[in-house]
Amino acid sequence: xxxxxxxxxxxxxxxxDKVKSVACRIKSYVDQGHRLVxxxxxxxxxxxxxxxxxxxxxxxxxxxxxxxxxxxGEQVSIALLSMALNALGQEAIALTGGQAGIHTSNFHTKxxxxxxxxxxxxxxxxxxxxxxxxxxxxxxxxYDITTLGRGGSDTTACALAAALSAExxxxxxxxxxxxxxxxxxxxxxxxxxxxxxxxxxxxxxxGAKVLQIRSVDFSQVYGVKVQVRSTFSQEEGTWVEKMRxxxxxxxxxxxxxxxxxxxxxxxxxxxxxxxxxxxxxxADCSVSVDMIIQSxxxxxxxxxxxxxxxxxxxxxxxxxDNLSRKVQFKGVKLDEAVAKISIVGAGIASDPNIAxxxxxxxxxxxxxxxxxxTSNLRISCLIPNSSINEAVQxxxxxxxxxxxxxxxxEL
Length: 411
Ligand code: ADP
Ligand code: ASP
Ligand code: MG
Description:
- The chain is an alpha/beta fold.
- It contains eleven helices and 20 strands.
- The protein has helices at 16-31, 46-57, 63-87, 119-126, 153-163, 197-205, 213-222, 274-284, 313-324, 352-364, 388-410; strands spanning 3-8, 35-40, 92-95, 102-104, 113-116, 130-134, 137-139, 145-147, 168-173, 194-196, 226-230, 238-241, 253-257, 260-269, 289-294, 301-309, 331-335, 338-344, 371-375, 378-384.
- α1 (16-31) crosses α3, α5 (153-163) runs parallel beside α7 and α6 (197-205) runs antiparallel to α7 (213-222).
- Aspartic acid (ASP) is lined by residues 9-10, 41-42, 47, 73, 135-136, 150-154.
């Protein structure tokens, strides 16, 4: 009997009818002889609503209390799904992250999974129960509830699949798989049948929220095979797995992220150790940073610019407060009207022609590029937020649609 871990996202359990149909899908797997662990997210937009309530009460709510609040969303959906399965005659049990043995660091709202003790889950599986686990949460060494960052149920599922040595992990969501661009913005985007962990990790990192980046990294380290697929169809989805890198350099997907802020530290002293000080503070507050640019020095001063996620804006305030006690700088400028557009594919930065084509397409759309960063797997540009949809569509046409046409012509 094979053991499968499945994860159902918020849209998959958005109302009671959807919860019931998820229960039917799970039961059909059990009827085929599988053992099932199902990880569930909060219903629909519950987490967003809880977040708004917290911000109405306090402009920057204490992280521990935020976790206490946000984790309740998943508790509702696991209880309902377990009841729905029991109503179908299939025994099931709902477990919080802590009850499921998920131990995390105590970094509230962005906790990391440290260990998973799978004994209790195995005990219930041996009683022929379906085990329903609350996604996105765990328990710290102080027995406090922690959460794993937005989209964290994906990570719960992949980490459990690794800890339980599951055959594979299925991520059920509201699209048929991982696409060459967000299908909501590019209707001609097509489903990718197989993608490597590296490329998927880069896509997740750059804003393709279909998988949380840590879920991909977990799966890669522990060799978990992951399939992303739709809750609302039987169609096969996208397999994220180990793939040999191909010789030909190819853009696999266009990814965008409008959830970013450009930060500029103005006129910081131009001497050794200052950049290290700024980035140590950012790292200590767990603010992830991308696209770092340091301006030319003038009169012993420099500007240091970088891009952060909007979710880290509260932490940034703390970083600025701490730094202003240690370094003299003129101030901090924030620009929220920006977005990051990226092309992703193994080896693309090694082909300068690809960079040229990307910049040329953006210039044809009269889109100004503010910052650029590259790695072996991607080229990213910071552009005005108002131009993001046309940028995604134009780049998709250049690198995916037109490319397919030329491949067909060559054959
Ligand atoms: P869930 O609630 O199931 O976790 P999410 O909203 O977190 O679902 O992720 C699914 C969404 O990710 C899709 O509805 C889609 O709009 C978005 N998305 C962004 N980029 C991509 C992509 N390249 N492929 C598929 N979906 C994408
Ligand atoms: N409910 C959480 C969120 O909305 C976790 C998840 O859905 O993965 O971010
Ligand atoms: Mg998600």
